[in-house]
Specification:
Helix content: under 10%
Distance between the termini: 26 Å
Number of strands: 10
Order of helices and strands: EEEHEEEEEEE
Strand content: 35-45%
Strand order of the largest sheet: 6-7-8-9-4-3-10
CATH topology: Metal Binding Protein, Guanine Nucleotide Exchange Factor, Chain A
Structural class: mainly beta
Radius of gyration: 14 Å
Largest sheet: 7 strands, mixed
Number of helices: 1
Length: 131
């Protein structure tokens, strides 16, 4: 069971799903919505993810994607794409223990910031990971 929530504690979630697709995303939308050079995510099945307290705010970040965040403190929480209805991405660093799901790759590196260098030895993909 993975548990997490926002910075201020207004929103709490848990998932008993198996985390997959753990990645550090460098896309411009992730960077802008988090005000950070990259965002670490992991994926679970939507039915394995549940909000246990609070109510996140939702917004459309593109024609196919919806993101959630805490409207009190601003913590980004999830990403869902209509293109992948059987997945929900969760921000790794909103976990109580982010060490439980370390990234296994870097994605959308072609649109990343030039001064953001990584020496972690993980694979880099110019866009999304190969299916």
């Amino acid at each position: 069971m993975l548990k997490g929530g926002c910075f201020c504690g207004a929103i709490r979630y848990e998932t008993d799903g198996e985390p997959t697709q753990a990645t550090a995303c460098h896309c411009s939308i992730c960077r802008r919505t988090s005000a950070a050079p990259l965002v670490a995510w992991f994926t679970v099945k939507p039915e394995a993810f549940r909000i246990v307290s609070g109510q996140p705010k939702r917004f459309r970040s593109s024609e196919h994607a919806t993101r959630t965040f805490c409207s009190s403190c601003g913590t980004p929480l999830t990403f869902q794409s209509a293109r992948y209805a059987d997945e929900i991405d969760v921000t790794t660093c909103s976990l109580d223990d982010p060490e439980q799901v370390p990234p296994r790759s870097h994605t959308w590196r072609a649109s990343g910031i030039s001064w953001m260098k990584s020496a972690d030895g993980l694979p880099f993909y110019p866009e999304k990971r190969p299916e």
